[in-house]
TrEMBL record:
It comes from Paenibacillus dendrobii. One of its GO terms (molecular function) is hydrolase activity. This is Amidohydrolase family protein. It comes from the Bacteria. Keywords: Hydrolase, Lyase. InterPro entries: ACMSD, Amidohydro-rel, Metal_Hydrolase. The keyword Manganese does not apply.
Length: 291
């Protein structure tokens, strides 16, 4: 079965390099990602744009918009990109320049959507500072992907990353589709309700486990851990709005696919691993056709 991994990283972020070496034991390069894609029949990935100007500074308040996949000189052909947004640079005398650069990048065919790092940046997603971003998303018919749940940095503030904040946003911006990353973990039941209630909200299942095989085995064999997510999936009952993602390099793709297969009932695998991505990201059809 072909797979689309809608949540990976390929940016020169110090914490990603460290995780790849110390925890997941993956080859954090484009070649390493390509090898994992080939091994697991992954036909396309979507990278979440993010940059840091100083080593270890993620989330870096000085990073210019749009943030991209800067581990390589260009986006590899087997990837698309969600451009990352630094809201701290959307206010002030240079705001228009920042927005112009974001809009120019959105016109590139390899760009699939927009990524907001809620929690990492201390703004609620319904804050007016993001309004021009949602206008651009509507104009170019691309979804807005939103980090929710625990942050991979002690400098994040969890109140900004709670999935319930997406409910108010979805109500305000019915013309834009949104994706809740990480199913809002640990607030997965709240995220499940936001997905069930709002026709323009989806969720991905990425980043729920970080590490190598011994780490995955420990959690996959813990019923309380697995039921934490299964309960939310059953409650939401919208498998057509759940998407597969790994958050690579936080985990090897084969292990993560095995984990999600255990979570999601088999009759929904083709939707979650492949079909649902086409409904949320309109541009991927053309990208896949060009491969």
């Amino acid at each position: 079965m072909p797979i689309i991994d809608i949540h990976i990283h390929l940016s020169d972020i110090d914490s990603f390099h460290q995780t790849a070496v110390d925890l997941s034991k993956v080859d954090y390069t484009a070649a390493g990602l390509q090898a994992e894609f080939d091994k697991n029949d992954v036909v396309l990935g979507i990278g979440m744009g993010v940059t840091e100007q100083t080593k270890g500074a993620f989330p870096d308040s000085t990073s210019p918009n749009p943030m991209g996949l800067n581990l390589e000189d260009r986006v590899p052909p087997f990837l698309m990109e969600c451009v990352g947004i630094n809201p701290n640079r959307l206010d002030g005398k240079h705001a228009l320049e920042e927005l112009d650069r974001i809009e120019a990048r959105l016109q590139a065919p390899e760009v699939a959507g927009i990524k907001l790092y809620a929690g990492y940046y201390h703004h609620y997603v319904y804050d007016k500072i993001y309004t021009p971003i949602y206008e651009l998303a509507a104009k170019y018919n691309v979804p807005v992907v939103i980090h929710t749940g625990d942050t991979y940095s002690m400098n994040g503030l969890l109140k900004y990353a709670h999935p319930l904040t997406v409910d108010e946003l979805a109500y305000q911006q019915r013309g834009v589709n949104f994706m809740i990353c990480h199913l809002g973990d640990p607030w997965v039941m709240d995220a499940a309700e936001v997905v069930a209630k709002n026709p323009n909200v989806y969720a991905d299942l990425s980043g729920l486990v970080v590490g190598d095989r011994p780490h995955f085995e420990r959690f996959m064999n813990e019923p309380l851990f697995m039921d934490h997510f299964r309960r939310a999936l059953v409650y939401s009952d919208h498998y057509e709005k759940m998407l597969f993602g790994t958050d690579w390099p936080l985990a090897p793709i084969d292990l993560y696919a095995e984990f999600v297969r255990r979570l999601v009932p088999e009759q929904h695998h083709e939707k979650v691993f492949y079909e649902n991505a086409f409904g949320l990201f309109p541009r991927i059809q053309q990208r896949i056709a060009a491969l």
